[in-house]
Queue: 3 jobs
Job 1
Amino acid sequence: MPREPLTAWRVEFEAPVASFRDPLFPGVTRGLRVPPPSTVRGLLAAATGAPAETLPLGMASEADGWGMDAETFHPIAVDGSDPAVSGRVSAGKGGMTLRMRPFLTDVRLTVWLPGPDGERVARALRRPRWPLRLGRSQDVVHFLPPRRVELEPTDDAVVGHALAPRDGHDVGSAFEHRLAASVSPDRLRTTWADYLWCDAPAGRHPVRGAYADRTSGGDQAVWLLTP
């Protein structure tokens, strides 16, 4: 993206409960503390009805709490039977097993959508094509009306809970996450990237390749991420 001021649309999403499974741990239900960019792109594609949304976007996410849910699964065998699992119940009564599912509570996600494509997606959010979800199909999300803001190039800003590229800053408390940047519409190809994210909000720090959203007296760092 050019290093010059940009007009963007800022959208604030909220979800009472959300769960983001880490696909890098197959067979284990490991939860992520921040939604992957691919999840956010899927949310935007649900609004526009497009197979995928590849526009640059900035994002910041936080949650007030987290927990573990014991979910009941009824495995189905190849022959259609419902076998017993781990001796919990007899085969005649139908098998079942439990899986622990990590989840987040009171999730707040802010997304910045620059340029004409950002305006197009912001307009679609007012009348989304499909239901908007953040994570699993039951994790319905709510949002505030999109707001037009100006993003200014900066070398110093409040990092907060913004998702940054791996070289975006040097905040010592940041966690490095390998997340899905995008998933192909047929779900056969996933693009991965390394990001920095702060569990506890980080204050003002030197930043690289970032913009600042100074709306309402703030100085939030925004990194425009590409698939």
Job 2
Amino acid sequence: MTASKENQTPTRRRAPAMSPEQRREMIIQTAIPLIAEYGAAVTTAKIARAAGIGEGTIFRVFADKDELLQACMAEALSPEHAVRELDAIDLSQPLPDRLAEAAEALQAHLSRMGAIAGSLGHRGGKHPGTVRGAGRTESTTRIRAALAELLEPDKAALRRPPEQIAALFFGLLFTQPRTEDEPDLTPQELVEVFLHGALSGGAG
């Protein structure tokens, strides 16, 4: 009986009564990983299948495929998701744990941003404007402010103001050196080097 019940709900993914704005957001979120994988060659038919909607639905909220690609680029550059994740980190955790969570969230954000910009960067090469008021400079400012909030409980133990430490930490994440023979540092390793420096504990 359970099997027949399961078989009766195949269309649950289709959200009825979605507003155009909600549908637009859902399509963008579905399209981003596909664009990262296939680049600008991804078809609207493929995006529609992944979203569980008809292809015509895409063109009810986007004028054409180019507008959809630009919206995905703008969303990937937006700090909204990263800032929400940083704001959700539990401030009662020890500082290294807070920063490791922050590093993980921001590495995912930078990776997504890089994948989309790399896939669509040849389409004019310019920043696609703002998303919910967040241009490139403002994105960095908002992420740094969220990082500074994470550092605030340990303000007395920091060598510099939280805002400066946040800027340094963000810069380290953004410029982490990558070589073919050396894997990236894990968030925990990166935080350890950031907080305690390059010297091992035994160095005099």
Job 3
Amino acid sequence: MSSARRLPLRSLAVAGALGTSVLLLTACTNADTTRSSVAEAAQTESPSASATDSQSASPSDSSGSPSASMNEDKTERKDLVSATKVTWDKAADTAVKEVPEGKLVDLELKRTDADASASPSGSATGSASPSTPNPAPSQGAPEWEAKVAQSDGTLHRIDIDAVTGKVFRSQVDPEQKADDKTQVSEWLDQAKQTPEQAVKAATDKAKGTVTHVELGDNDDQKAVWGVDVVDKENWNKTTVDVDAANGKVLSQEVDKD
């Protein structure tokens, strides 16, 4: 849902570049190697073979099969999904139970932040500190970050341990503005399809593990469910946009990077 407006959420920022090296052989010089930095979230470095060096050794995945196409994004998806024990629907049920009469509008699988155990004081407007009913998972462990909305559009953030299924942080979004509430409320009014129905439509088109479900809108101002599905065969991610009013699949885009 690249063109769609989204909720004001923190998203998993897994950025990195593959290390590359070029070996220059001359009679008078030594080898010179350059390497770009990699993101902290992904620890696996995969060398890239040059077009003229087709015999370069390719790395293998855990099963021992060649995985030259496993770049850092794919490796991160594999590590994150493999470490997750709680499915998206279980996490959704848990999140919604935290907010009476609330409706799920966003759920994302991501890494736990360093400040997950912190209990910051309320904002200048007097928002309460977050509730921390259970210990937070360690930094970098998988979590489900959910947004659950009340009928007036007020968002509650619910963080769920993706291994144990326990809520470790719950709070009203302290940074949500009045116009944001209005927008969320309008999306909810348009959304006749539940998240479960949207996921069903998406996974009928793209098989795999659901890692993100989000309500937003498209260029035509129609409410749309965006669903990310990761294929565990090749670790590509497919984003499927589903009309939130009638459940029709509007588009799908495969991210092979």
